[in-house]
Design brief:
Distance between the termini: 36 Å
Oligomer: single chain
Helix content: over 70%
Number of helices: 4
């Protein structure tokens, strides 16, 4: 439901934006065909961030060595989660660019 709403908002933006017609057509075709597939890196980043947030909350409950090590591990998991989100964003950008080039190349012979 939410993805359908986001796709329709994206289509309205593409139609009203000042993009050139070939790019508009390719983006409209991609948005009609569906979103890019979900990548494992993004899911792993989400899992690491969720684990790190809960672990950081539990790490504040005590002051002994266990809680200090839990804090360090949670901080490391959070940093890795953020890095994996950035990597997933890069992968999605590459996939989108590749798909746009393919669509524009097929339609306009570029």
């Amino acid at each position: 439901m939410v993805s359908a709403i986001l796709i329709s908002i994206f289509r309205l933006y593409v139609v009203n934006a000042g993009l050139k017609k070939p790019v508009k057509d390719a983006v409209r075709k991609i948005s009609c065909a569906g979103l890019l597939p979900v990548h494992f890196v993004g899911k792993a980043g989400t899992a690491l961030l969720m684990i790190s947030i809960v672990s950081l909350i539990f790490a504040d409950l005590g002051t002994n060595t266990f809680f200090h090590l839990l804090y360090i591990a949670a901080l490391a998991a959070g940093i890795w989660g953020i890095a994996m989100y950035w990597l997933a964003g890069y992968i999605y950008t590459e996939q989108g660019i590749r798909l746009l080039r393919k669509e524009l190349g097929e339609k306009y012979g570029a």
